[in-house]
Amino acid sequence: MVVTPLAEMKSSSTFRFIFMATVCAAFVNLPAADEKRARPFVSYEEPVASYLKRIQKGKQQHAFHPAVDVAAWQKSARAALIKLIGLEQIRDELAGFEITVTQGEDRTVDGEITRRLYTIETEPGIRVPFYYLTPVGGKGRAPLFIAPHGHDKIGLHSYSGAFRNEKHREEILAREGHIAEQAARRGFVAIAPATRGLANEVLVPDPKGRHGNRPCRAQLVHCLLSGRTPTAERVWDMQRILDWAVKQPEVDPKKIVMTGNSGGGVLTAYTAAIDTRVTVAIPSCSFTSVTSAEGYVFHCDCCLVPGLRNWGDWKELAGLIAPRRLLLVHGEKDGLHHRPTVDALGREVKTIFGYSGSAAHTELKWGTGGHRFYPEYMWPFIAQAFEPSPR
User: Fold this and answer.
1) How high is the pLDDT of residue 346?
2) For a Cys-Cys bond, which of 52, 62, 107, 247 suits 295, CB 3.0-4.6 Å?
3) CATH 3.40.50.1820 fits 61-385, yes or no
4) How many Cβ atoms are within 10 Å of 209's Cβ, its own excluded?
């Protein structure tokens, strides 16, 4: 048998044929799930494909780089983000405004938790309701658990277990969406707030359906005209609720968990990046790059921050959370997100946390279902975060 030297094979058409056949065979033999993940999330035809690639790159002025001093970079990037989303403008506009909180209904549930409904006026005429859940018979200070919802108009009721009817109850329990109630039953003080622009109580109407009969998009348009973003308004609301909550005698202000699914996860990510009081952040089914490699924008219009790619991307949001705790959770069957994009981002986030000396403080977990919470990953992560440090 004559053996062809490797050098000759590399330059021959025979080698090229064998190589390509091997690659194709490997791809053909991929498991169905892996083959699906290898496909582009979407595709655009030219000239749109090149156009999107060109304009979406952005200046990346605050992109993380290994050579930077992490603390100095965080200070600069956080200040720039606060200004970019319009939060600085809101602070200036509302300087001197007195935040007020009023209590409404009070109910004990199963003898285990007390659920109170409060309203906080975060700016003139804007009254944001939130449920405040505490364990019955709790002693001392407990960790705070705050969970803003996404595109669920009765989301604060869903999260808190204040179900409207039996159908509502069955739907939410089936996907373990009563996350604030779960937290209270575990000994946390829990808050389930309305998310501005998404909850019935704080919607921006869309008269004549000019914005697609979508209140969240109407909120976006009005905000952009005013130099704000819905993200800034929502972060502002969460920060004002936190201001009130950390003053409550039953709350441990050094242990604050924040989580939310979908749009609530987006709000969790931005709030934790901006407000260092959040010690554990768990954005669910939401934490991904701004766009796919093809230019597809993953998040809802109302999450848009104009010029974000000139600032950086979602890996930089994660970098502003380090060295605090960050758990990224996604569902394998969630059609709104792209696993290769999320996995790549997870590796980048891990690297950035590593440069802050806290690589072990972030994880990426995949649930087997769709667009929902995965408590089986959340609670162990939180428990580990709050374990006493070894002496």
Assistant:
1) 97
2) 52
3) yes
4) 9
